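Task card 7
Instruction: Convert sequence to structure tokens.
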Amino acid sequence: MDTRETSPFHGFTLVYVAAGAAFLVLMAMDRGGMGRTVLKALPVSALILLVLRDVRGFARIFLTGALFFSVCGDVLLDLPHPGLFIYGLVAFLIAHLFYTVLFFRYATPPHGFQKAVIAGLILFAGLMVWIFLGIDPDLFGPVVLYIVVIIIMSIGALLVPSAGRLLFWGALLFIASDVVLAVNKFLVPVPYGRSINISLYFLAQFTIVAAARSIWMDKGTEKRFS
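Output:
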């Protein structure tokens, strides 16, 4: 890829990394408050601006929708009210639905290797459902629905042609983040679980948008910044 194309990305990357690192430091220090919540929302909000600047059409609408609801989930899950967890889960569920619709719009039929990966993802989903059978019955249904949607989203990401399968790697990082969060919250404490969960989440969103930008970047925008 031409370095002229990637240079406008660097400023957004700096904001993303700086805000994400600042949030992780405050979280490690157990410092709460609205300032921390704003820092948590800032990285993905910066990605929204990047998408609005560089992407057009169908991809722009659905990437923006996915990132907007992700920011809503970021805020809801960081506020100090346990009852907001389910609403944060719903926000991320909607975000994954936006990603899913976008990915399957541009998906290609699976070939042999991809079919094997899809089978593995389905088996993994079944394992996750079985593992979480014992959680609060009020949360079990939403958690199962979330597992199903994120696996379908990941299958869609796998089927979109992407250099180095970067889009799929972003989806896998999202799954890893959510697994750490769920295990830490519902099953057993994971050492540094919250920091691992958030770090994987930030990396997942960045990877997905970097891949999406390389696939759906508006050529007029590329020329303006060349």
